[in-house]
Write a structure and sequence with these properties.
heterodimer, A: about 250 residues, alpha/beta, Rossmann fold, 2 domains, 6-stranded mixed β-sheet, 4-stranded antiparallel β-sheet, 7 helices, about 25% strand, globular, B: about 250 residues, mainly alpha
Chain lengths: ~250, ~250
C-alpha cells in the first residue's frame, strides 16, 4: 500500500519558485500496477524519486506500507532508465545478489536466490557475464532481477524501457507483465508512452506540467494478456491522450 | 613484436655510431662491450643486489605513497573541509620536482634509505592523491542510488561501490605513481644513496669513466621499468577495469 497525500515539491531558481510537483495525491493498493504518465517536466520522475526516498517533499506526506518514507529502504526496489545503473565490476549474478549481500545473506544462499531471479527474467544462461557484454534489453532485465532479489514489496520503475528500440521494448513489456503476474509486487511505473501504460497498468495517473499536477486517473480494466491492437485498448489510449491534451486546449 | 622492432632499430643506430671511431671507445663503448660488462655484473650478483636495493626503495616509497594517496584522496572527495584544506597544499607542492627536495632530506635525515624513500614518496604521492580524489568524485551517482536502495551504506557502500567505481582512475594513478617513483629513485640514489642501488652505480661509474657500467645499468633500469609497466600494470588492468568494460582498448 502506497499513499501519496498532498505532496508538493517546490524549489527556488533565479527566475522564482518552480513547482515541480503541485499537491499530488493518489494511492496504490497492494499488488496494484500503477503507471504515472505525462510529458517531460510533469513531475512524474520527481514524484517517483520522492517515493524512493532520494529526497523529501517540501509539503505533504508519503507512506509505504503504513510507514512514512524516510530515506531509502529495502521495502522498495528501484529500476532506472539508464543501462549504466548496473555495477560494471560485478557479473549479472553479482549484481542481482548485491541487495542480499547487504542484508547479510550467506554466499551460497544469495547466489541460489539470484539465479532464481535471473531465471525469472530469462537470463540464467548469462549469470557469469559482465554487464558490458549484455545488450541494453538484457541489462535492464538484470536491473529488474536485481531490484526484485531482496524481495521488496514495492517496485519503482523510472522509464526502464525508454532507451530501448521499439521491438525490444515490446518484448520487455511482455516480460515485465509476466514477471509482475508471478511476483505480485506493487509497482509504480513512470513512462511518457501512453500505449505502454495501457498495456501494463491497472490504473494510469495522468500528469501535466507547469506546475506538475495530477490531471486524471484512468482505470484499465482490460483482461491480461492485453492486445494492443484491440478496439478497447485503443479506446483507453485515446482517453489518456485526451486528458493529456486537455491542458493545451485550456490555454 | 612491434616493440622489439623499435628497440632493435635504436640499438643498431647506437652500435653504428659507436663503431665509427669518432668517439673514444671508453666513452662510447660498443654493445658487445656493454653486454660483457652486464653479463659480468649479473654473474657476480652485483647487478642483482643493486637492483634489489633500488626496488626496495621504490616499493617502500610507492606503498607509502599509495596508502597515503588513497586515504587522502578519498577523504578529500568525501569531506568538503578536507578538500578545502588540502587542495591548495597539493597545488603548491605538486609542481616542486621531488629531486629538489633531495638536499633538504639529506640535511635532515642524512645519506641513505630514509632520504631516498622520502623522495620516492614525494614523487609518487601526487598522482595517487589526485587520481583517487578525481575517481571518487567520478563514481556514477546511479550506482550510489541503486546501492543505497539495496541497503548499502557506510563502509559497505565505500568498499563495494565507491572503491570499485573509482578503480579506473586509481589504477591509472598507481601506474603514473610507479613511473614517477621509478624516475625519482634513480635520481635520488645518485644524490642521497650510499654504496648501493642502480642510480648510485651510474653516478659512481662516472668517477672512473666506466661508460660500459653506466650503459649496462641504464639497460637494467629500462628493462625493469618496462616489465612493470607492461606486465604488472598491464595485467592488473586486464584483470580488472578492462575485463569490466570500464575502460576500453584503443581500436587498431
Amino acid at each position: 500500500m502506497i499513499e501519496i497525500r498532498n505532496v508538493s515539491l517546490v524549489y527556488d531558481t533565479p527566475d522564482g519558485k518552480v513547482h515541480a510537483v503541485d499537491d499530488a495525491s493518489f494511492s496504490a493498493a497492494n499488488e496494484e500496477f500503477v503507471c504515472l504518465v505525462g510529458p517531460s517536466g510533469c513531475g512524474k520522475t520527481t514524484l517517483l524519486n520522492m517515493i524512493a526516498g532520494f529526497f523529501a517533499p517540501t509539503a505533504g506526506e508519503i507512506r509505504v506500507g503504513g510507514q512514512p518514507v524516510n530515506g531509502q529502504g529495502l521495502d522498495r526496489g528501484i529500476v532506472f532508465q539508464d543501462f549504466a545503473q548496473l555495477f560494471p565490476w560485478r557479473t549479472a549474478l553479482g549484481n542481482v545478489a548485491f541487495g542480499l549481500e547487504m542484508k547479510g545473506v550467506g554466499k551460497a544462499e544469495r547466489e541460489r536466490i539470484a539465479l532464481e531471479q535471473l531465471r525469472l527474467v530469462k537470463l540464467e544462461k548469462f549469470a557469469g557475464a559482465y554487464p558490458h557484454h549484455l545488450s541494453g534489453g538484457m541489462q535492464q532485465r538484470v536491473a529488474i532481477a536485481r531490484a526484485l532479489a531482496y524481495n521488496p514489496g514495492v517496485l519503482l520503475m523510472d522509464e526502464p524501457f525508454a532507451a530501448l528500440d521499439a521491438m525490444t521494448r515490446d518484448e520487455m513489456q511482455r516480460l515485465l507483465a509476466e514477471v509482475w503476474r508471478e511476483t505480485r509486487k506493487t509497482v509504480i511505473y513512470v513512462t511518457h508512452n501512453v500505449a505502454e501504460a495501457v498495456y501494463l497498468a491497472d490504473r494510469v495517473i495522468v500528469m501535466t506540467p507547469h506546475p506538475g499536477r495530477i490531471r486524471a486517473e484512468v482505470r484499465v480494466g482490460l483482461p491480461r494478456p492485453r492486445d494492443p491492437l484491440s478496439v478497447e485498448f485503443l479506446e483507453h489510449q485515446k482517453a489518456l491522450l485526451r486528458h493529456l491534451s486537455l491542458k493545451e486546449e485550456e490555454k | 613484436m612491434k616493440a622489439a622492432v623499435s628497440v632493435l632499430f635504436f640499438v643498431l643506430v647506437y652500435e653504428a655510431i659507436a663503431r665509427t671511431g669518432w668517439f673514444a671507445q671508453a666513452l662510447v663503448p660498443t654493445l658487445p662491450m656493454v653486454a660483457q660488462t652486464l653479463w659480468a655484473m649479473l654473474i657476480d650478483g652485483s647487478m642483482a643486489s643493486h637492483a634489489v636495493n633500488t626496488l626496495y626503495r621504490v616499493f617502500a616509497g610507492l606503498s607509502l605513497a599509495a596508502s597515503f594517496g588513497l586515504l587522502l584522496g578519498f577523504l578529500m572527495a568525501r569531506y568538503r573541509p578536507v578538500e578545502n584544506f588540502f587542495l591548495p597544499l597539493v597545488s603548491a607542492l605538486m609542481p616542486i620536482p621531488s629531486l629538489a627536495w633531495a638536499p633538504v632530506f639529506i640535511l635532515w635525515f642524512g645519506l641513505g634509505n630514509v632520504a631516498t624513500i622520502l623522495i620516492v614518496f614525494y614523487a609518487a604521492s601526487f598522482p595517487m592523491v589526485i587520481n583517487t580524489w578525481t575517481g571518487a568524485r567520478a563514481v556514477n551517482p546511479l550506482w550510489l542510488r541503486a546501492a543505497g536502495s539495496m541497503g548499502a551504506q557506510g563502509t559497505a557502500m565505500f568498499w563495494k561501490v565507491v572503491v570499485p567505481g573509482a578503480s579506473p582512475f586509481i589504477i591509472t594513478g598507481l601506474r603514473l605513481a610507479f613511473q614517477r617513483a621509478w624516475i625519482a629513485v634513480v635520481g635520488a640514489e645518485m644524490l642521497a644513496a650510499s654504496a648501493f642501488g642502480l642510480g648510485w652505480v651510474i653516478f659512481d661509474a662516472k668517477e672512473f669513466l666506466n661508460a660500459d657500467i653506466m650503459l649496462a645499468s641504464l639497460a637494467v633500469i629500462g628493462a625493469i621499468g618496462f616489465v612493470f609497466e607492461r606486465v604488472v600494470f598491464g595485467s592488473l588492468e586486464r584483470s580488472t577495469v578492462l575485463r569490466w568494460g570500464m575502460v576500453r582498448t584503443a581500436k587498431a
